[in-house]
Amino acid sequence: MITVALPKGALLKDSIRLFQAIGLDFSAFLDSANRQLQIPSTNGAAKALLVRAQDVPVYVEYGQAQLGIVGYDVLREKKPQVAHLADLGFGHCRLSVAVKESSSYRSALELPIYGRVASKFVHCAREYFDALDLPVEIVPLYGSVELGPITGMSEAIVDLVSTGRTLKENGLIEIEVLFESTARLIAHPLSYRVNADGLCSLIEQVRSQAFATA
User: Fold this and answer.
1) What is the widest separation between alpha-carbon atoms in the chain?
2) Which of 65, 82, 104, 211 could be bridged to 186 by S-S, CB 3.0 to 4.6 A?
3) In CATH, what is the architecture of 2-91+182-213?
4) What percent of the chain has pLDDT over 90?
């Protein structure tokens, strides 16, 4: 039986809708009274795991799930050993550099040498500033990253932005975009190569449905 790793959070509803369209119903995960983390599809043809978005590629890489849906931002940050199969076209957001609106900084290169940048995307932020040849200190934060500039702990942040509302409400503005992110379909490399349990057929169905609704 094929196992699919689904991400908690913003991508879950669209992920479930995509699989529903090809006959795999995991909508029980949307029931707030449901506490199960593993459920079969209603037709019994597959099962799904509900995990943190950052853990989706881990379950796929280690073979506990043959398929997964995860944001491109997670793939860029973690660089897991998985097969990247398709851009699913939903979950649009971007990884950006943001600063206090009241600051004088309007580009990343204007940030001070050895200044502080707070982010949970430590590797992406480090790669970006290394490419700019701008030495900065990356401060790892994993919640309320916006507080970095507000409290004066950092000059900037690198964080995901969707509508920009959270930044605006906290007096921050975007000054650079590192990359755009959408939901991606990934697979366990060996399972994909050997077409375990008819995996390739399922992948083609998901791809076709994603492209049809894009």
Assistant:
1) 58
2) 82
3) 3-Layer(aba) Sandwich (3.40)
4) 92
Task: State the alpha helices, DSSP H only, in 6-48.
Answer: 12-21
Residue 213 contacts residue 206 (beta carbons within 8 Å): no
Q: Which amino acid is at 102?
A: S
**Residues 59 and 68: beta-carbon distance below 8 Å:** yes
- Alpha-carbon distance 159 to 53, whole Å? 15
* pLDDT value at 214 more than 70: no
CA-to-CA separations, 101 to 38, 130, 139, 176, 213, in angstroms, rounded:
44, 24, 20, 13, 38
> What is the domain class of 93-180 according to CATH?
alpha beta
Contacting residues for 75 by C-beta, under 8 A, at least 6 apart: 57, 82, 84, 184, 186
Buried b (16+ CB within 10 A) or exposed e, 130-169: eeeebebebbebeeebbebbeeeebbbbbbbbeeeebbee
The ranges assigned to domains in the chain are 2-91+182-213, 93-180
| pTM of the predicted protein model | 0.93
